[in-house]
Automatic annotation (TrEMBL):
Signal peptide: 1-19
A GO BP entry: innate immune response
High-level lineage: Eukaryota, Metazoa, Ecdysozoa, Arthropoda, Hexapoda
Domain of life: Eukaryota
Protein name: Peptidoglycan-recognition protein LF-like
UniProt organism field: Sitophilus oryzae
CDD domains noted in UniProt: PGRP (cd06583)
This protein's record includes keyword Protease: no
Signal listed as a keyword: yes
Domain called Peptidoglycan recognition protein family: residue spans: 31-174
Length: 191
């Protein structure tokens, strides 16, 4: 009986994941943005402040968790981060606007419309984008780098960034991620 129930649950999960994947690919052919509904986010605990349509900064972070290479692993990491931010750090929601998974997808955190809770000075004037993983010794994957750049291109095309935006990185984001981001266009320093 238990095996049957587990089998049914796995089958439903696989069917749901396939439908979600098809939906994401269809809606976002250049960059796959997994919506909050797709990773089954809990709603914010209180109303979030709005973010201006075009922001002057991107602040990059590492999540300081294990990396993820599959959709299921990435969903697990993102849900864990949201729960941790709300329950342990007393935040209203996950700290970041977007997260970059090792599966080649972007995970919507607070999204385009609401400011983050990642850096007090920059929350209201930036997109906080976190690479899922820990990058003290390991480099982000090429897939993560390409996916991040696709998101930045999308943000630029949709006028979500000021033309002369600054790319910043959190000082605690791991030597390998910092070294990578320092070579990208618009890099302006560490915060």
């Amino acid at each position: 009986m238990v095996k049957l129930l587990v089998g049914v649950a796995v089958t439903l999960l696989l069917q749901t994941t396939s439908a979600i994947t098809a939906k994401s690919l269809k809606l976002n052919s250049n960059v796959r943005i997994r919506t909050r509904q797709e990773w089954v986010a809990q709603p914010p605990s209180k109303r979030l402040p709005s973010l201006p349509r075009a922001v002057p900064n991107i602040v990059v972070y590492q999540t300081a968790t294990d990396t993820c290479k599959s959709h299921a692993q990435c969903v697990f990491r993102v849900r864990y981060l949201q729960t941790y931010d709300i329950e342990s750090r007393s935040m209203s929601d996950i700290a970041y606007n977007f997260l970059v998974g090792g599966d080649g997808a972007i995970y919507e955190g607070r999204g385009w419309k609401f400011h983050g809770d990642h850096n007090e000075e920059y929350n209201s004037k930036s997109l906080g984008i976190a690479f899922i993983g820990t990058f003290a010794n390991a480099k982000p994957t090429k897939i993560q780098s390409m996916t991040f750049n696709k998101l930045v291109n999308k943000a630029s095309k949709e006028k979500r960034l000021k033309r002369d935006y600054k790319l910043l990185i959190d000082k605690g984001s791991g030597d390998q991620l910092i070294a990578l981001v320092k070579n990208w266009p618009h890099f302006a320093g560490e915060v």
